[in-house]
Amino acid sequence: MIKKLFIPVFALALFSCNQRKEAEANTDLVYFDIKGYFEKEISRLQKLNPIVNKTVSVNGAVESKSSKIADWSKELAIFVNADINKTSWKGSFKTKKQNGVDIYTSDHKKIPIKKISITWKDKKADIIEIIIDNKNILYRSQDTLTYCPDSLYSIKKQQKIRLLKDKKYSVIGKLK
Known about the structure:
Elements: H1 2-27, H2 34-48, E1 51-58, E2 61-68, H3 72-75, H4 77-80, E3 94-98, E4 101-105, E5 113-121, E6 124-135, E7 139-148, E8 152-161, E9 167-175
Antiparallel strand pairs: 1-2, 1-9, 3-4, 4-5, 5-6, 6-7, 7-8, 8-9
């Protein structure tokens, strides 16, 4: 009888511990919640289902087409991944607010996100710009991400791999 009760009690205890940790993580945001913001945008755009004029450029070769995005979470994943509220990054960003723009910067070598600027208009994010710089001995990539709600998103990437030619990519999506 005791063995039969042990498993459900253990599972319940384990489940309740996980819920507390998750709740603590969400309330402990030091900087603007990029991840939360873009998860809401993904949900909103998935419901809205707008037509997007998408232009993709690779080393100058340009291709454009209009379509509906089937999976906004894949389309905006790079924005969600630019979350600066990681526990290990606490205190690594300088915060500056001026003229309706919040700017978060870091010069820490191990943090790829170097700058996030959020321009506010009527208490809503109007323009979000993210600069990411990854580098090691063999590789360097610089990304500039721009997001304007209900207007456009832009991903520009420059890659330099040793002994290979530079590559430049860009994706610009204009919402109709």
